[in-house]
Amino acid sequence: MxxxxxxxPVALVLLLALLPxxxxxxxxxxxxxxxxxxxxxxxxxxFVGSPTSRRPNWGQRGFxxxxxxxxxxxxxxxxxxxxxxxxxxxxKLYHHPELAAADGVDLRPLGIKPLGTGLGGVHVLQTxxxxxxxxxxxxxxxxxxxxxxxxFQFRTAGRLLVTGRKQMTLLFAQQANVPDSQAxxxxxxxxxxxxxxxxxxxxxxxxxxxx
Length: 211
Prior knowledge:
The relative contact order is 0.18. By secondary structure, the protein is of the alpha+beta class. It starts with 6 loop residues before the first helix and ends in a 10-residue tail after the last helix. It has six helices and nine strands, in the order αββαββααββββαβα. The protein has helices at 7-27, 58-63, 90-94, 98-101, 149-162, 188-201, and strands at residues 43-44, 47-51, 67-75, 78-87, 108-114, 121-126, 134-141, 144-145, 168-175. The protein is 30% helix and 27% strand. Strands 1, 2, 3, 4, 5, 6, 7, 8 and 9 form a nine-stranded antiparallel sheet that branches. The protein has a single domain (37-201), classed as Protein Transport Mog1p, Chain A, CATH 3.40.1000.
């Protein structure tokens, strides 16, 4: 038996423990921000995109995406594929997204590089053998680029326990047959990605100005 004098503190502790479960498992609280991948125009920096032939449920299966778009852009004889996917399951987007997005191309990470977006850095990958493929991707959350998603989840874990989940957005650009002499940040894929990030983030409402 628990003494009655401990009843109130024990009830409070149980309530705090059950609150995250109720929010995420039973209520399923989600915060919709109204942003969409379709708002990014087909033409980016002079490159004209067209939809790829992915099946309609591909993004949901691969990324648990609630909203996704993929387009192909021709840069001379080279194709750039731009995937934009949004999901409330953040790990589905940041944990090796190239495994789903790159269609079996063996890409290896080169690190994080700033591309002049003004928001942060993007992840850069390329093949080590065979025809050179380059990929760059950005992770956008609350209008900013997330360079280290593991640290991001660690520092926001407490807040996310008691608030509704928000969507993260993956923007992934891949280019085939890139010349060995061309740096990843100088590719058409980088140009398309930067433009897509700018257009997507431009949907974010401006923060209220202080008086």
